RNA sequence: GCCCGGGUGGCGGAAUGGUUUACGCAGAGGACUUAAAAUCCUUGCCUCUAACGAGGUUGUGGGUUCAAAUCCCACCCCGGGCACCA
């Protein structure tokens, strides 16, 4: 492969760009500029976690895309912000460090260096002045400050409830970190463990997170994932006394239409209320022991094993006010403690309840039936479980007898509320965000605990009696108020709370963070009373730093400032910067973040808006996800399979421009696709053709081949079509068709004896976003002093796109019989006349009667015959 | 089980009611060359036919339409997400 030395060209161009500073972000903090001058485009990639393996060719696909996009935007006159940074806290970095016996900080620094070197080889237009690193104390000072604001607003609370615990990673996990009951990182089965945790009340934002999805320009699939994840369901909350006790029980039901069928209730085996419920019953110990066993079983059981119903009678009954008598309460393995109230009234109109009752001989009483008589009989005889709450016909209560349940959902709810059985309630599947990790490599949680202050706080406040707490709590017993007695935020002047540099940072496995062993870190003074106090030793999860990094890029200078954050954020300069860049106009990254990072960041952003730091509701206006590049064998690229392709090798052999063009040309951007080494040849050839076209340029201006040619496909038309299509396709992330259009143009230009300089320059500009090195090099060879990347994007002339002659299709009976040329906009009669004379059409019309003629202007004529 | 995508040549894909297979890769034939590489040109779904042609063909089956890859119904397969969430 000859004619150009990509190594030389690419190196030379990158040096020039650096020298000329063409990728420096243009800030515009004056609010007075006319709109056209301050058009901005904030284009963001999901920042990488700098792993020790470096990049493979799959990683940069998204980065190339945003690079192409932002280059075009810049040429179109937008101020662009296109930054890059590193998300380097968290388990992977720490595990890598432990495995390689190197301190996480050192490992991260080293890996970032490698990453940056690799990224730079690809010729991205990042403004490295904006680089951020979540593990930089100047960065996490802000992360900690934001956490403190949440703490002060009561959005961070201390919980003692059992949480997901990964025995292998030796840390608590959030609900989002668990997949099919397994740790998302290492695949170990997750246990429930009662470890004291800091939890963020993301559920307070559930409704807004759900509602605001509607206005976002995001892939429908991701919106749908988030809707499912938030899992809003409207239902009824029933309250009833527990027989022979002072206790009351609340149960939630989203499918309440057949609530007259309830004959028993189930409680989760790990429900914190269970011990209190069975207190004083005959089989108290037996029940608790059995429940314990169920919990343990559930912790190790595979997913499918949970389908087998198992349980035990608690010895207690609900006195159901509906008049169904006393409902026995059972412990059931399928009941979930932390959804709804963890206790559910059960009936034959639920698959799981039905199976459970059948197994343990609990009586059932159907009140909902199919219309069909024989089917109805089966339900009456309890042979089948009937659950259709839409089409089912009710037999009870009297008020709704014979009615279709689905048509009266609202009325049934009104009825239950009016009679005092229940109140309306909206429940979410979303759980609060478990925010503590018992690991070393994370942001220290900036809180201090003072035992003295806790005592006085508790003394000053008499413990509320149980009954009251029942009224106020989601659960039936005290969950502890959300005031965190004895806990205080680290005063702002003392931020950041730096992660101590230690030798031993391996997880303890005791539920304590490794920081708990460092006396010099723990011991401190109480910010409230000045007495001896202890620091929180847990760290934040991997997702903390990434929850606000889109903001960090806008205020990168602020991160270096010595001023307090509270003061900085009220500064009008800060406010202007934030207003000028946010929201992110285009956000590109992997779809795997649908229900984690993308929910957390939205939550965090909304919170910061609520406290006045931001003025936008949502962080990411438009989102696109990049399809994975698979290895040639169709598997994921991984060291394990030995199928990794390193971009450095490609850059070395064929050049960054070739790699970029190839990755953009492979297929639709969002689609998963396998690497094909052969395919790269096409990309390289395309670039070489663009180079070779230079020889066809005439310096004399008089001979401009852009003069309209006497053909239907004039070059000028093609050129303007290409300008239009490439611009539109890049805007829509349809890079593959943009490139194919460029190829068509190049093929056509090759056929010409001469190419005008103007045409060639337009071509180079259109190629520039994809192949920035060679395009700029060729551009400068033409004598241009400034980089092509700061030139103006060409605009198409709509009048020049129109053909003068068009190719028409002649059909007979809907079948194509011939094609012919005709004048643009030619009328039906003229076309009919031409078409009817064509021999191949004539042949098919012979002996037939034309019933109808269909005419589509500039496209076809169709004779419908009989 | 529920919810999203998707199924088009040998391969990646294009076309969102109007010529199926743009563009690229691989293949075959040719030109140039002492030769090779590179480059350029031609060709390129299946069936029937000596040929001209004709018919078929966008996962399968049906429907709407002058006309369907595209719209509607049913089914099959692949990929992804969610899942004892009451």
Radius of gyration: 34 Å
The N- and C-terminal alpha carbons lie at a distance of 60 Å
Instruction: Give the strand order of the largest sheet, numbering strands 1, 2, ... along the chain.
Output: 2-1-26-27
Largest sheet properties: 4 strands, parallel
Overall average pLDDT: 86
Instruction: State the helical fraction.
Output: 25-40%
Unreliable residue stretches: 462-482, 700-713
- Structural class of the helix and strand makeup? alpha+beta
Strand content: 15-25%
How many helical elements? 29
Oligomeric form: single chain
The total count of strands amounts to 33
Using the alpha-carbon principal axes, give the shape: globular
